[in-house]
Amino acid sequence: MGIEFLCRVADVLSDYLEGLNEDVIKDNFVIVYELLDEMIDNGFPLTTEPNILREMIAPPNIVSKMLSVVTGNSSNMSDTLPGATASCVPWRTTDIKYANNEVYVDLVEEMDAIINRDGVLVKCEVYGEVQVNSHITGVPDLTLSFTNPSIMDDVRFHPCVRFRPWESHHILSFVPPDGLFKLMSYRVKKLKSTPIYVKPQITSDDGTCRVNVMVGIRNDPGKMIDSITVQFQLPSCVLSADLTANHGAVTIFSNKMCTWSIDRIPKDRAPALSGTLMLETGLKRLNVFPTFQVGFRIQGVALSGLQLDKLDLRVVPSRLYKGFRAFTRSGLYEVRS
């Protein structure tokens, strides 16, 4: 519970302050203090829903900061209690009305993978989230089911989820908060393949090092793979680098971080990066080999294979719009050389 609460605090602060670091917390110390005061009571979690907290504590903006300087009042606390205090569910306000009722479900996944220097897939798993954006009149009661829920491990639920229907039939039954929220998270382990391959070849002799890196599609997911990047840190013993690519742009920063931006793989040729590294005087061979960090993005597919079955509403209002989307991006995706 403690770890879950800390994760929720981090999510709320990031949502309020549009980022989370030491400087942001210092600049918005009063709001951070007010949020923590509402989120925890006598050592126990109390209110952790962003939509309820926004009714009690206004997010910071330029106008509120100017008023606090002029008036000397730095508090953003509301004078009225949020509507959820009179609701049967503490994460949803009462008397919500919409002209158009909408609910959208997104599967957002991150793939973590480790490929060793022999090209063998050592680890491959997916961390995913089911995100729901709900704008429905009244107090809706939703059920969401999957075609293959057995592949999910380490599931974590939003407090709105009733646990018994999931435990008995693997069905998510819930009364959603208003707006966007994370319904559940999960992990799918021991996947057997990755969508793209990265093959680095590094040879060194007589104070120089030859680098060749090839990138291509290993298993076509059926959707466009874009935003492909390959990033690696040059060893400290490298004095200079001359790297070029037949597709995309290569950038070497002052901290010796090399970034190869490929975006999309063309159909007529496989992207390749090649070049020479000059080593320090007296050093004939490279002793420390870089690790390649790979990034990519795929719209419209969940690489874990998880599929949504159906979304039902117990009391269906007029003009209900439902939508499903899937999105996969790279997480910690390493190729060792």
UniProtKB/TrEMBL annotation:
Gene3D superfamilies in alphabetical order: 3.30.450.60, Mu homology domain, subdomain B
UniProt GO BP: intracellular protein transport; vesicle-mediated transport
UniProt xrefs under InterPro entries: Adaptor_comp_med_subunit, AP2_Mu_C_sf, Clathrin_mu, Clathrin_mu_CS, Longin-like_dom_sf, MHD
One term under GO cellular component: clathrin adaptor complex
Chain ranges of the MHD domain: 100-336
CDD domains for this protein: AP-3_Mu3_Cterm, AP3_Mu_N
Swiss-Prot/TrEMBL keywords: Membrane, Protein transport, Transport
Compartments where located: Endomembrane system
Keyword Membrane part of the UniProt annotation: yes
SUPFAM superfamilies recorded: Second domain of Mu2 adaptin subunit (ap50) of ap2 adaptor, SNARE-like
N-terminal signal peptide: none
Keyword Transport set for record: yes
Major localization class: membrane
Family statement drawn from the similarity comment of this UniProt entry: Belongs to the adaptor complexes medium subunit family.
Protein name from the UniProt record: MHD domain-containing protein
Source organism (scientific name): Populus trichocarpa (Western balsam poplar)
